[in-house]
Amino acid sequence: MPTVDPVAVQYAPGRVEPLSEALRRKGFNECNPHDPIGYGPYLPYHRMRMGRILVPQKGGHTADMGYDVMVHFHGYEPVRKVLVQTAHGIVYVGMDFGVGSGKYSKPFQNKDVFPRLRGYIEKALKKQSGDDRAHIRHLALSAWSAGYGAINQILKHGDEGIDAVVLLDGLHAGWKPGARKEQRVESVSALFVEPVLDFAEAAAKGEDGKLFIFTHSYVDPVSYPSTSVTADLFLTELGFNRESTDSDEPFGLAGSADVLGFHLWSYKGHNEIAHCSHINHVVRAVTEVIEPAWKTPHMDRNVPFKKVPKWQK
């Protein structure tokens, strides 16, 4: 019988280690999360031809070896640090291509690239699990900040096989031609992010069980439409209202709109730290929405936790 790791008990699913003042004095913050359990209940990163994958050490799959998978773009290591503390069984794939949404959209301009990525993931699942039956059961695309460029581009080629989209303070509409460049709905156009809007609408209608989660701060990037005005644009286009929420936290929830599979969560904050705080919201997206909706099989969190070598971070 395996020994229960005390850290595994302390950081049970649904709870991220709080950023104490002691940790902040050591340089940890919302942009640089602490890494208390390394890979936790997952096997070490496995390099694929595109990205890296984390597969549960034990469990996390159906009887026929179906895995629920989330592919995340931009900031994959900070997201990994919080996700391993909280996920119940989802497989994690992380990718970083650099700074700027164009770096993320370009690799997927060829419509054949995303299907190839799915193939790489299933090949890795088979290898890591040691079972040739291993396959993707559900698939989510996630992005923080500039990573949204990948998701927007992938959705241009269609959403077949994509069950959920998670955007963490990273979705920017375009300026409306001829309009003054101001952070208001009248100045922006959804044309640039129309593939994402179409997916959001499908989720709001409950089509095919699709899930859409979009979080935003109130950072003003000045030179291009903010995530907050893009959120307002989506609400306007879809005819939804945001319900206000009163929070005392500096980056707390300010409002939300939840309609069937559509979830838009507005959080306070106007600076870089506020923007980084959205990394942590992947926890709510996964543990409160995606895994419950998919009934993701639980992995065993009582396995010995594995540390992350410095060279692999």
If you had to describe this structure to a student in words, what would you say it looks like?
With 313 residues, this protein is of the alpha/beta class. 30% of the residues lie in helices and 19% in strands. It has one domain (6-11, 33-312): Rossmann fold (3-Layer(aba) Sandwich). The chain has a 10-stranded mixed sheet with strand order 1-2-4-3-5-6-9-12-11-10, sandwiched between helices. Helix 6 packs across helix 7.
Looking at the structure, the CATH topology is Rossmann fold
Approximately how much beta-strand content do the residues carry?
A: 15-25%
Largest β-sheet summary: 10 strands, mixed
Give the strand order of the largest sheet, numbering strands 1, 2, ... along the chain: 1-2-4-3-5-6-9-12-11-10
Can you count the beta strands? Answer: 12
Q: Look at the structure and give the mean pLDDT.
A: 94
Find the structural class using helix and strand composition.
alpha/beta
| Total of domains | 1
> Would you state the CATH class?
Alpha Beta
Order of helices and strands: HHEEEHEHHEHEEEHEHEEEHH
Helix content: 25-40%
Output the CATH homologous superfamily: Alpha/Beta hydrolase fold, catalytic domain
Shape: globular
**Which second-level CATH architecture applies?**
3-Layer(aba) Sandwich
Radius of gyration equals: 19 Å
User: Could you name the ranges where pLDDT drops below 50 across 5 or more consecutive residues?
Assistant: 1-13
**How many helices in DSSP terms?**
10
End-to-end separation in angstroms reads 31 Å
